[in-house]
Each structure stands twice: as C-alpha cells, then as structure tokens.
Amino acid sequence: MENGVAVQPWRSLFLHSIVSSIDGLCNAIILCILSSPCRIVRFHEIQMDHIHWKWWIVRVRVIKKGHLQENYYGDLQIRLILIDELGTKMEAIVYRRQAEHFNQLLRCGSVYDFYNVGFDPTEMIVHLRFKIRSHFCMILNSATTTRTPHGHVHMLRCPWRFPEYDDIFLARHNSLVDVIGLVVHVVDIEFRSLYLRRTRIIALVNPRLQIIFVRVWDQQLTRNLTRWRSARTHFDCFVATLTRVDRRADELSTTYESDIIFNPDSASANEFNVLRQALEVSPSNVQEQVEESIARRNLHNYQRQN
Questions:
Q1: Among candidates 87, 72, 82, 69, which has minimal Cα distance to 117?
Q2: How far, in Å, CA of 229 to CA of 286, rounded?
C-alpha cells in the first residue's frame, strides 16, 4: 500500500526494480566522476593503468619541438620534449592533422594545460628511437585540446630525481639525460670545430665515487665563466639537464636546451653533503681516480682518432 492506496504485487516489484536501477545508475555516475582524472597527472605517476584511457590532463612546458615530417608509415608527425612541474621529462608524439595543428599552436618555452591526452609504452612504438629514456610517451590525439594556464606557474628548475651513473653509462648514443654530481676537475677552455666554438670538460663524481665527464659548450660555458674554478675548489654540486650522450668520446655534452645549475636547493643535491665534507677534508681520496679516468679517456680518444 502506497499512501493509503493498495498496490498490486507486480507493481511493487516493478517500482522496486526501477528505483534499484536508478540508484545503481547514480552510483555508477558518482563513481565515474570520483575516479575520473580531473586533476593534473605528473609524468612520474604514469603506470600501465594509464594507457587504457585517453582523457588525462597534464601541465607542461614545451622545451623542444621537432620538425613536422613524415614518419615510417607516411603519416605527418611531430615530436615534442615536455617537462612537468616537478622537472620530469617525457616525449610526446602528434600524428596526422593534429600534427599540423599543434605545430602552429605550440611555442618552445611556453606552458600549456593539455586535456584528453593518452600514454603509450615506448617499447610498443618500435619505429621510433626516443631521446628521453622513459617507459612511456605522451600521445596527442584528435580529442586533445590545450590552453595556457592563468597566472604564474611555478615549475621546478632542478629535476626532483636523476638517473644513476650506471644507467647513464649504458644509455644509447645521442640520447638525452640529466646529470648531477660534485665538480672535482675542470679542464682549461679549448676551441673546437671550424666555428671556433668554446668548450671545456668538467669531471663529476657521485657518492659511489663514480666519475663522469661533461663537455660544456658555448653559452652554458660563458654564462658561468667565473664559477668554474670556484666550483672545483669548493666541490660545488653541479646539475646539467638535457645533456647528449656521446658514446664515441665517452662523455656527456650540453645541448642548446641544457640548463646549468650550481648548488641547487633540492633533496638530490643534499645527498652529496656528506661526500663534499669528506672531499674537503681529504681531496686526495678522489684525485687519483680522476687522474686515472682522464688518462684512460685521453688514451681512448687518441686511439679513436688514429
């Protein structure tokens, strides 16, 4: 009986089924809203679960935009290198008509909010050789839109994490990596190539006393001209982003997009405090290793040139 009116059993069952269906639908809608990616996702959060949906939102700065060209399958394509608010980098790929659209729209150095983007595992895209070592790449599809965020957007200049030296030693030739270490050796400035480009080699060491060489070029060199000797004397923490792996010369090399940072205020830099204190007390602990590494490197380069 409803409101004093008798109701047939079949009608009660029918009403109950409708109410249950509506409740279930409402619950499904609420669950969908709560689980939808309405917040901005960061690159380090991307997992295999993210590849099943193409509705993610990211806030990134475009730090490198490739040329519009045909890919292996004859489709137009453009490749981007992006950096998120925490300094994590990832490559993005745009195909077909969207490639022309975003090629005209996007500007290097600008920050954008991208809506409805997808992610694919890099190992599934066999026809491309990625510059950034990452398990995933971002895909801009026909549903992807973008806008410029309002107001100032704070983005970390120094990446929040770095690859291990062992991973850098194994990185593919011409790939791009970020590196951090203490400055333990600075070579005099030399001039290279037909254009007399200025360059110098610096040696970095990590807490495991592994040594890696970074060749600094042109503007990254001259902008910090007065810092190098002081950095060597005080074992400054040094960060170089987007350096190119040169397997032939056994070194990293700064690029036009590289950023040089001395003594960054970050957790990664703080991990070097103990090592710096030890080197200030007894610098000879690492000096012999540096000299041996330089001798091996010079011998390797001499044999390669002859």
A1: 82
A2: 17
Residue type, 24: G
Residue 262 burial class via C-beta count within 10 angstroms: exposed 0-12, middle 13-18, buried 19 and up: middle
127, 130, 135, 141 alpha-carbon torsion, rounded to 10°: -70
DSSP string, 192-239: ETTTTEEEEEEEEE-TT--EEEEEEEHHHHHTTTTTHHHHHHHT-EEE
Report pTM: 0.79
**CATH architecture classification, 165-305:** Beta Barrel (2.40)
- Nearest-CA neighbor of 94 among 117, 122, 63? 117
CA atoms 289, 225, 131, 117: torsion sign: positive
User: What's the CA gap between 166 and 152, in Å, rounded?
Assistant: 37
Topology of domain 43-147, CATH: OB fold (Dihydrolipoamide Acetyltransferase, E2P) (2.40.50)
Residue whose pair of structure tokens reads 């490749």 in the numeric block: 79
Q: Where, residue-wise, is CATH 2.40.50.140 in the chain?
A: 43-147, 165-305
Contact 94, 67 (CB under 8 A): no
Measure the CA–CA gap between 221 and 198, rounded to whole angstroms: 8
Instruction: Report the pLDDT averaged over residues 221-238.
Output: 88
3-state SS of 34-90 is HHCCCCECCHHHCCHHHHHCCCEEEEEEEEEECCCEECCCCCEEEEEEEEECCCCEE
- Long-range contacts (CB closer than 8 Å, 24 or more residues apart) made by 17-20: none
Q: Are 60 and 42 in contact (CB under 8 A)?
A: no
Q: What is the pLDDT of residues 137-178, one digit of tens each?
A: 999 999 999 999 988 888 888 888 899 999 999 999 999 999
- Chain centroid offset of residue 191 CA: 31
